[in-house]
Amino acid sequence: MSNLVSLNETGSPVTTSLAIADGVGYEHKSVIQLVRQYVEDLREFGNIAFEMRNSTSGAGRPTEYALLNEQQATLLLTYFRNTDIVREFKKRLVKAFFELAEKVRTQVPQVPQSRMELLQMAMDAEQERLVLETQNKQLESKIEEDSSSVAREQEFNQLLKEADDEANKIPDTPITSADLIRLCKRDKSCRDNR
Length: 194
Known about the structure:
By secondary structure, this protein is α+β, with helices and mostly antiparallel strands. Helix content is 65%, strand content 9%. The protein has helices at 17-24, 28-37, 39-43, 70-78, 84-107, 115-169, 177-186, 188-192; strands at residues 6-7, 13-16, 49-53, 63-68. A four-stranded antiparallel sheet has the order 1-2-4-3. Strand 1 and strand 2 (13-16) form a beta hairpin. The longest helix is centred in the C-terminal third of the chain and has 55 residues, at 115-169. The chain is elongated. The termini are far apart.
């Protein structure tokens, strides 16, 4: 679908004379002239909006282009010679309009036609709400479990760091028996256990 069709401000699918010119390999000037030449024919299928776009290079005059609905674009394409390029573009444009219409159709909520349909929609919505509520509670308990695990892990990592810091304070030189005796004399618990 890419840039062939889009939704205008009223939510209707449209294409532009620029997209058509690009798709059929014509200069835009020729396509916009064709739109102007057959503007009355095209208006039978709805209003035509003409807009201006600054040139992509930033220099030069703005380009006027036409916004066309599906019927107008289809009619305009019938005025082109049926070359291989034009025929391929017609197929791509038809597919693009169809895909966008399908996308819009599936996104629009269905309006209930009876009280039974309305009740069924309400029941379905409530069931979905209950499922989501249950999932949220499960996630909340998992988060609590994970956060306590994370806290324990952080505490363990802090203890490891402190132990590592203490180990770094111990000199790398070998301790002699004289050193041990001197340390033991300073430490009361060591003297009591001798």
